[in-house]
């Protein structure tokens, strides 16, 4: 990826700074010499702040911690003061919730509204980079075939997710639509959205609780021992997503939405990439589960038959050319991403060796 001219004369705000993608973003900002205002729920918890502080201690940049609650109006005022760029990464990622409105939609939408409305009250802010998702672009892999040229693009929006079907995708869609409504009602700052597909790869520190790690854990702990469905997805490395944020924040001419996705793939291919290196030590699947079987048992495993019909054995295709062209993005190979992620999880004691 080409060198990005990073402005170090003003601090930047990173919301949800202890998150998976945010960790790599903070590291890259600190390495570039930026002063990072890290907004987190509990800055008094050394378990949360120590890894980020250690990054700052080893880098030319500096970090300051601020207490902020996504759902509290005005909570980001102090953290945002003097910042020219706001990276809003804070948002829940879970596919298993009891109350989608309270656990997913409210934090995503209300949090986005609180952060962006604060940006409009903060004269120094010139750009807001929102971590959205490909989930705001599509609900099911079958949407690809209906897209122009058979590939999803930044022009597409998810129109079929709801509180009852794909609520996580619904929360990301509602949050991004809210962001664009707020952005278009003002002229002080520019909104840029980063829309990654499934984010994999090692964490910058610790072992995050992201759903991404839950997926890979199930591949290595025997949960998929009998096989894994060919579930059509896109995959991108967390480190590449962080670099996309840097480009979206500092390149002068970027605007609009940016799909950030390296590989049109499926869950089976991800598993096979792991199996090639670790299959002799861990029960990583290398064979597909037939769609009829996934359709039959899916409801007992949290997968609706509608979801199975629309995503298993359905190819996933997306146009990532805008990000490559305007953000200068290059991507790591899939096998590098998943092997380095799995190796880190082994070191953390995630899997007992068999």
TrEMBL record:
Question: Signal sequence: where?
Answer: none
* Keywords annotated in UniProt: Oxidoreductase
Name the InterPro entries for this protein.
Epimerase_deHydtase (IPR001509), NAD(P)-bd_dom_sf (IPR036291), NAD(P)_dehydrat-like (IPR050425)
Lineage top rank: taxon: Bacteria
Q: Does the keyword Acetylation apply?
A: no
Q: Which GO terms describe its molecular function?
A: oxidoreductase activity, acting on the CH-OH group of donors, NAD or NADP as acceptor
Q: Which residues are in the NAD-dependent epimerase/dehydratase domain?
A: 12-248
Q: Does the keyword Heme apply?
A: no
One Pfam family of this protein, by short name? Epimerase
Q: What is this protein called?
A: Diaminohydroxyphosphoribosylaminopyrimidine deaminase
Instruction: State the organism of origin.
Output: Roseovarius indicus
């Amino acid at each position: 990826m080409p060198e990005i001219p990073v402005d170090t004369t003003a601090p930047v705000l990173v919301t949800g700074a202890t998150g998976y993608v945010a960790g790599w973003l903070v590291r890259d900002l600190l390495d570039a010499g930026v002063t990072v205002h890290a907004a987190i729920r509990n800055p008094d918890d050394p378990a949360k702040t120590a890894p980020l502080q250690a990054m700052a201690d080893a880098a030319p940049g500096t970090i300051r911690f601020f207490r902020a609650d996504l759902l509290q109006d005005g909570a980001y005022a102090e953290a945002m003061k003097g910042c020219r760029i706001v990276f809003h990464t804070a948002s829940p990622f879970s596919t298993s919730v009891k109350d989608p409105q309270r656990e997913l939609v409210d934090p995503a939408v209300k949090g986005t509204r609180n952060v962006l409305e604060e940006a409009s009250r903060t004269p120094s802010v010139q750009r807001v980079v929102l971590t959205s998702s490909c989930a705001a672009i599509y609900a099911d892999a079958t949407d690809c075939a209906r897209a122009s040229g058979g590939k999803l693009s930044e022009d597409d929006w998810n129109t079929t997710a709801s509180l009852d079907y794909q609520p996580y995708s619904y929360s990301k869609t509602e949050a991004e639509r809210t962001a664009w409504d707020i952005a278009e009602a003002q002229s002080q700052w520019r909104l840029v959205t980063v829309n990654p597909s499934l984010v994999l790869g090692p964490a910058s520190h610790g072992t995050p609780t992201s759903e991404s790690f839950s997926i890979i854990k199930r591949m290595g702990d025997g949960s998929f021992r009998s096989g894994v469905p060919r579930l059509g997805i896109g995959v991108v490395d967390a480190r590449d997503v962080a670099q996309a944020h840097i480009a979206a924040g500092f390149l002068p001419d970027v605007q609009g939405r940016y799909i950030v996705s390296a590989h049109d793939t499926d869950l089976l291919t991800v598993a096979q990439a792991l199996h090639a290196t670790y299959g002799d030590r861990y029960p990583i699947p290398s064979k597909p589960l037939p769609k009829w079987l996934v359709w039959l048992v899916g409801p007992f495993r949290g997968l609706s038959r509608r979801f199975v019909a629309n995503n298993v054995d359905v190819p996933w295709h997306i146009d990532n050319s805008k990000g490559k062209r305007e953000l200068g993005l290059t991507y790591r190979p899939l096998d590098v991403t998943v092997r380095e992620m799995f190796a880190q999880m082994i070191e953390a004691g995630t899997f007992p060796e068999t």
